[in-house]
Design brief:
Length: about 325
Amino acid sequence: MTPLRTLLAAALTLLVVAPAVAETDVKFALDWKFEGPSAPYFVALDKGYYKAEGLNVTIDSGPGSVAGIARVAAGTYPIGFFDINSLMKFRDQNPDKAVKAVLMVYDEPPFSIVTLKKTGIAKPKDLEGKTLGAPAPDGAFAQWKAFVKENGIDADKVKIENVGFPVREPMLAAGQVDAITGFSFSSFFNLRQKGVPAEDIVVLLMSKYGLVLYGNAIMVNPDYAKAHPEVVKGFVRATIKGIIETARDPKAAIASVMKRNETADEAIELARLEMALRDNIVTAWVKANGVGDVDPARLAKSIDQVAITYDFKAKPTASDIFTGEYLPPVADRKL
């Protein structure tokens, strides 16, 4: 056999016997349904960003921005997307479960009070004498005490009615409550789907009324992060690419959501995504500093604000709650 044939034979043998590089399976839990704001993760999936990191990512819907943290703590989902303020409380209640945020997505949270013009509620103080519909596990309602303090509201003059997530917007539309707590881009468009004209809906973003809190972030199970740091880094890198791509072309990005939620209204989901990008994700701070990181001083101040609504047994520091060790360089996070 000639040397050339020998080399070709050897190469063919390697092709036959060399196993394909296995991808690492990763289960990722969202906070809620497959709606417009979940586009970045599906874009990362469809564009092959996760695959390029050697990851086979499965994305599941979730029970809300608070309840799902327990899924990450238990390891049912090693990585999840939930409210960082609720993580502070969870860590305090479960000191042996050191779940930590590794990528900030909602630089400004969508926590809001949503009402209708006919109620006359145009500012926080106007809630006095009114009925507020609020699901007990709602991430926005969790900030109520801090919101009350920052805006000088007499909480005794506001009637709180515990309502379920599915009936929250219908009750507001029907006049059974005067206002509701919720994520701005969820409640606004849920009301639109109920036939309420956009001009009749009033959204009071808590971030515009004294709250310095952050919102939802990617968080990881501590044991998983310790055992698989490169997987976490790869997931974070790919997700950031998905966020940047979504911000560049929301209309194309929404197609990735619609593939998984064919009964949704594409126009509404696109508008929902654009609202989340404008108000929560692509903020002035993110434009200046890149996607994914936090300002430690602001995070520390937000912990102080959470302490208004919750009595910490052991108040955490910013570094207890968030780490930037899995983030790529700033140049790779710029919009």
